[in-house]
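Model it.
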Amino acid sequence: MALQTLRLKPKSDARLRGGHLWIYSNEVDTALTSLKRFQVGEQVVVEQAGGKPLGVAYLNPNNLICGRLVSRDSRCMLDKSLLVHRLKIALSLRQRCFSTDCYRLVFGDSDGLPGLVVDRFHELLVVQISTAGMEAVKGAIIEALQQVIPTAAILLRNDGKMRALEGLSSYVETVIGEVPDFAPLEENGVKFLAPVKTGQKTGWFYDHRMNRARLQQYVTGKRVLDVFSYIGGWGVQAAAAGASGVICLDASASALDCVEQNAQLNGVAERVSTLQGDAFEGLKQLKAEAERFDVVVVDPPAFIQKRKDMRNGEQAYQRINELAMGLLARDGLLVSASCSMHLQRDRLVEIIRSGSRKMDRQAQIIEQGHQGPDHPVHPAIPETDYLKSMFVRVLPVS
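Modeled.
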């Protein structure tokens, strides 16, 4: 099938030639190739101003990011064949890195499949499609996944916020096999059940796997507070690694029910308790009760969703980290994390520095963490490098 062409303005191809995949609407030569002529989700051959092909992209003419490159071969469309090829490449990385079949199988742009996320829970695949271009090939995605991982059940968790921006409906649908309400997974030798149909995102966050593994060496015999605990990724793993006691704090009652279930699953229920409520208010309550912890983990949702949220978001990070430091025992450990792409790593360091000085404490950053290898960073797309964690020793001033 012959594809229409999309022509870029002069000097608007440098980013694509440098490895980036996104095309902005103001980069398109609309005098030659009006965006109005294209259908939402349509695939096109992208050309530089002189007419040289740059590859194939899918489009959404209604968005600022109007196109995403899916192939640098202008003869190669995004179809089942290309999907199978990209999935096999993605799978080979995960099999190289992990001994269990629990990981993020596809991480969008970084795996050459912009707009697609797939998390694997053993023989279950949870799929998130966030762009119209990927929605247009949904059938091919399902067929390709079946071919690459034949025994898998497949759940579509197409209820993310980005879909509305793409003009897509929100739905959750089982398309292959039987999908349980709670899917088993294993991370760092600890077992969990994740609410894949109703939980946050795909039901689990694999990105902090390596950071949670590092936490294990610091918690033996220690009292741990897990703030924004969700279903206990940090807290239950800390208990399994020998923490003397863990409190998981979260606003969601259903998430805390999962914490208790996961603690029971690993035989650590007697050392894990829960506290429901707003994180900021919960930390103030614990402070008023003169509670102290050897380790406090703060892993909030993204306080900075967009650049316009920067000021308020940074203030929220400042407040939550100061509240957490105030609950640490002498020579305690703060694990401070951020999944806000817009919060730069050096800015998080500054928040920790200023917070410790405000509280008349001395901070030592002893480790810095990153997203795991199943969330690879695309070197041309800074947005794919989003996760940060700081392991901070907090001491009295001497």
